[in-house]
Amino acid sequence: MSDEEYRVDDLARLSGMTVRNIREHQSRGLLPAPTVRGRVGYYGPEHLARLEQIKRLQADGFTLESIRRMLGGGAEFMSFAAAVHQAFDDGERRVVRLEDIHTLFPGLDEESEDGPALLDAAVDLGLLRPLGNGRYEERSPRLTRIGAELMALGIPPASALKAAAEARTHVQAVARGFVRLYMDQIWAPFEAAGYPADAWPDILSGLDRLRPLALDSVLALMRMALDEAATTLIEERAGLR
Question: Which one of 25, 104, 190, 228 is least enclosed by Cβ atoms within 10 Å?
Answer without folding.
Answer: 228
